[in-house]
Each structure stands twice: as structure tokens, then as C-alpha cells.
Design a protein that fits this description.
It contains 4 helices and no strands. It is mostly helical and 57 residues long.
């Protein structure tokens, strides 16, 4: 299993970065068009605070 991961790490890294960029872009668009108030869209769609919350539990 480790060999498989080490062989495909660029794919995992690329998909992870793509998800982060897409969620940031979507949060910015929702915030820009005021679909949700203030920064709610950005914090709600950005996965990093959610990950940090899980780690701190």
C-alpha cells in the first residue's frame, strides 16, 4: 500500500490542491455576489478550519 501511495503522490497532491482552490473560489464567488452574508461563505466552504477543528478534538 505504501508503494502504491509513493508511486501516485503527485495525483493525491494535485487533487487535494484542486479541491482547496475550488472551494476557495466558490466561497469567494458566493461572498462576492452576497448570496451569504459577510465572510460566512468563505469560512463555510474553506476546508482548512474544518480540518483544524477535527485535529483539535
Amino acid at each position: 500500500m505504501l508503494h502504491s501511495f509513493l508511486h501516485r503522490w503527485p495525483l493525491f497532491l494535485g487533487i487535494s490542491l484542486l479541491v482547496i482552490v475550488a472551494s476557495c473560489l466558490l466561497g469567494w464567488i458566493i461572498s462576492k455576489f452576497r448570496i451569504l452574508p459577510e465572510t460566512t461563505a468563505i469560512w463555510g466552504l474553506l476546508r482548512i478550519p474544518a480540518i483544524a477543528d477535527r485535529v483539535s478534538d
